[in-house]
Specification:
This protein is of the alpha/beta class. Helices cover about 35% and strands about 25% of the residues. It has helices at about 5-10, 20-35, 100-115, 140-145, 195-220, 265-285, 315-320, 335-345, 365-385, and strands at about 40-45, 50-55, 65-70, 90, 95, 125-130, 155-160, 170, 175-180, 230-240, 250-260, 295-305, 305, 330, 345-350, 365. The strands form 4 sheets. It has a 6-stranded mixed sheet with strand order 1-2-6-3-7-15, sandwiched between helices. The protein has a 4-stranded antiparallel sheet with strand order 10-11-9-12, with helices on one face. It has a 3-stranded antiparallel sheet with strand order 4-5-16. Bound molecules: zinc ion (ZN). Zinc ion (ZN) binds next to helix 3.
Length: about 375
């Protein structure tokens, strides 16, 4: 099987993040078993999803880890020209959900693993296939926690998010919040007797937007990013029941995506300050009715930024393997920040296909990108001999 044929099998598993990825993981486990390679699975608490780790070559040596996610974003409400979970070739492009993001890379990694199994390697080739990346790099954490206890960790990590095979040395970090504004219900004819939770939420949103404005004007900048500063935005708001009741509850979900130069802990502290200020001024302006009102702020998930030096060995390796000398930084996040910041493994993001096609209807990967990724993997195997 070539990588396109493996890709055809992988996209046939509709591994949308909310659903199980176990059929795909089982396919990969059997694929590797047929090459004589054992896999280690890391099941989630419900046993519905799993990460897979495998290593081919001398176990006592640190290896090169190829990391990627098995989950894909939903196709709901998207107008696809063909069935999204069946690989279709049109012209020189292969269409399916996940073709670019990022089952194309996984297919090339599996082809490389099968080749590696027939070789006598000096350094191992290692695979980490994770779940729940698209919902905040959640799944890979059980593998990372385990790796933190290993005496022998991978020497380098390549995360195969689509970069058109250009080495990406940086991505932003992300922190996602949920804020629950707790007001007090009252008849809307006498709003003074209540505390309006939607108004509290609106005050908080205003502060978040003012903070964004200040950062955009005068915050830290990194011109290598398309948006060269840390961004904040509110993505979800739910509040109120009917018009004639002062709303007692309003929920917000918001996030920031920080450039590596901005410390997320500082920004989290400032946002906690904003929340406290809004809650206090709401209480001050309402008097006795304010008892029991407030804002609960929770961090839903976060991951660190990736900030690999442009001249790091892992970057030189990716540049040499792909022939792409230019270093880029990408706006989207990945588990690369976790491998780098939590485990100290030098990490680069470098994978086939373009992020422009990801998450969209008629997602595709160009055939020549898949072939170029195979060539990158073959060059990598040469170095592991
Ligand atoms: Zn991805």
């Amino acid at each position: 099987m070539n990588s396109a044929q493996i890709l055809e099998r992988l996209v046939g598993f509709p591994t949308v993040s909310r659903d199980s990825n176990l059929p795909l993981i089982e396919y990969v486990r059997e694929f590797l078993a047929a090459c004589g390679t054992d896999s280690r699975l890391y099941l989630d608490v419900d046993g519905r999803k799993a990460n897979l780790y495998a290593s081919i070559g001398p176990a006592e040596q640190p290896g090169i880890l190829l990391s990627g996610h098995t989950d894909v974003v939903p196709v709901d409400g998207q107008a696809w020209s063909s069935a999204p979970f069946e690989l279709r070739q049109r012209n020189a492009q292969l269409y399916a959900r996940g073709a670019a993001d990022m089952k194309g890379f996984l297919a090339c990694a599996l082809r490389a693993a099968r080749r590696a199994a027939g070789m006598t390697l000096r350094m191992p080739l290692q695979l980490a296939f994770s779940y729940d990346e698209e919902v905040g790099c959640l799944g890979v954490r059980s593998l990372i926690d385990d790796m933190a206890r290993w005496s022998q960790r991978p020497r380098f990590c390549i995360v195969g998010e689509p970069t058109l095979l250009r080495p990406a040395v940086g991505h932003k970090g992300k922190t996602a919040f949920r804020a629950v504004c707790r007001g007090r219900a009252a008849h809307s004819a006498n709003p003074e007797r209540g505390v309006n939770a939607i108004h509290m939420a609106a005050d908080l949103i205003e502060r978040i937007r003012a903070r964004q404005e200040r950062i955009a004007q005068s915050g830290a900048r990194d011109g290598a990013y398309e948006v060269p500063y840390t961004t904040l935005h509110v993505g979800v708001i739910h509040g109120g029941t009917v018009l004639n009741i002062v709303p007692s509850r309003c929920e917000l979900e918001f996030e920031f995506r920080n450039i590596p130069g901005d410390d997320p802990a500082v920004l989290v502290g400032e946002l906690r300050g904003d929340v406290a200020t809004v809650a206090r001024s709401s209480a001050d302006s309402t008097g006795p009715a304010a008892a029991g009102t407030g804002i609960d702020l929770q961090i839903e998930h976060d991951y660190p930024a990736l900030d690999t030096p442009a001249d790091a060995d892992v970057v030189e390796l990716a540049a040499a393997l792909t022939g792409h000398r230019q270093r880029i930084k990408v706006g989207y996040g990945s588990e690369a920040g976790l491998f780098s910041a939590r485990l100290g493994i030098p990490t680069v993001v470098c994978g086939p296909g373009s992020i422009d096609q990801a998450h969209k209807p008629d997602e595709f990967i160009a055939v020549d990108q898949l072939q170029a990724c195979d060539a990158m993997m073959d060059a990598l195997l040469e170095r592991l001999l």
